[in-house]
Amino acid sequence: MELDELKEKWAEHDKKLDQSIRLNRQLMRETYTRRAKAALWRLAAILALGSIALLVVIVSLGAFVAKNWPAARFVWPAIALDVAAIAALAALNAQIGMALKIDYNQPIAAIQKRLESLRMFRVRYIQAILVTSALLWTPMFIVAMKAFFGADVYRLFGTAWIVANVAFGCAVLALGIWLSRKYRPGAGYNLDAASGFLVTLAEFEQDASYSAQERSSMRAYSPEE
Amino acid sequence: MAATETLQERFQTLVEEHKKILYKVCYSYCKNPGDREDLAQEIIVQLWRSFAAFDERVRFSTWMYRIALNVAISFYRRESVRSRHVVSGDERLLEAVDESQNQPEEVQVLYQWIERLDPLNKALALLYLDGNNYQEMAAVLGISETNVATKISRLKQTLRQEAEAKQNGTR
């Protein structure tokens, strides 16, 4: 069985396809008008809701810092949270920007590389949120208690309790990093699979050298002939 | 409004004329009919999104192949991770009449062979079988013509070896 013999059979199959397949024009029109709009709306909604929520957090934390300045025990936790929120906002916008820039009318190797990089970025973003939330819950608690109830967590629970929680957060962070490397991340996509496919893509792009057998096979047939 | 109508009409006509590409790509990348329908719809959406920027100097089939294969590879990688098998409603975008009867054994063998290839080589095999020359294949895949030639040669070799192994096994 040779590929070129099968190519002839494929050409026959191709001719028959004209009669044997039918494209539902009505459904096609509905698909590209409805689904294309829905996908754009979804993306816009994620961007708008995510950005608004994070902006509210950033501004509120800024106000909290200004109000409690120069009390370092309240200001530093709020600054840490603010930095995390700014980073999350930047990463969210970067993801959406990358997604919008993908033009499928580009060569396969280039687009697949971009898509895979975007997937890896998304996985790392979710991982980062999950693992840092363990560490950030203590400053979040300190700030929330002060902002909403005027309570001083340092006095209520003591510095030892706070230090223990930060240490616990660090331990969870380390465990989270280890687990995310070992098992599938929350995004439902394996980071190893993404990096593995990037390696496959790089290999696919690389100019392979011919073996003697390949050279003779190429001489025997070329589609341009 | 009228301009959109005209654009839609033109798009529909061109896709209708090249519906075989849609069928072959979907059939090669998805075993499950529900997934095939989903993929066909995703391809249509991406084709429509890119249609406004379609460059008339490029052959429509080359342009369509590029988008369809990009969507299919991305879909295939996503679906094989999720192993999702959603069956759509009764109405299908792409319907094949007497699908199995119209496919001779050799074509079924070919589809089975394509199915075993990795997503990138699937694209290469499809382009080759459809009679694209090395230059066109290189443009769609984003690799050099020399690389295309080497990879085609390897595909031929793999197929030959598989056939020989099968023959030896049945003896």
Most extensive interface between two protein chains, with residue counts: A-B, 63 and 79 residues
Oligomer: heterodimer
Spans of chain B of 5+ residues with little confidence (pLDDT < 50)?
Answer: 84-88
Distance between the termini of chain B: 67 Å
Mean pLDDT of chain A: 81
What order do the SSEs of chain B take from the amino end to the carboxyl end, as H and E?
Answer: HHHHEHHHHH
Largest sheet of chain B: none
- Radius of gyration of chain B, in angstroms, nearest whole number: 17 Å
Number of strands of chain B: 1
Instruction: Using the alpha-carbon principal axes, give the shape of chain B.
Output: globular
Strand content of chain A: under 5%
Q: Structural class of the helices, strands and pairings of chain A?
A: mainly alpha
Structural class of chain B: mainly alpha
What pattern of helices and strands is seen along the backbone of chain A?
HEHHHHHHH
The biggest sheet of chain A, with number of strands, parallel, antiparallel or mixed sense and barrel status, is: none
Tally the helices of chain A: 8
In short:
The complex is a heterodimer of chains A (225) and B (171). With 225 residues, chain A is mostly helical. Helices cover 83% and strands 1% of the residues of chain A.
Note down, in words, how this protein is organized.
The complex is a heterodimer of chains A (225) and B (171). By secondary structure, chain A is mainly α. Helices cover 83% and strands 1% of the residues of chain A. Chain A has helices at 3-20, 25-68, 72-101, 108-149, 153-157, 159-182, 191-205, 212-220; one strand spanning 21-23. In chain A, α2 (25-68) runs antiparallel to α3 (72-101) and α4 runs antiparallel to α6. Mean pLDDT of chain A is 81; it is low at 218-225. By secondary structure, chain B is mostly helical. Chain B has helices at residues 2-17, 19-29, 33-51, 60-82, 99-102, 105-116, 119-129, 134-141, 145-170, and one strand at residues 94-96. Chain B starts with a helix and ends with a helix. The interface between A and B is large, with 63 and 79 residues.
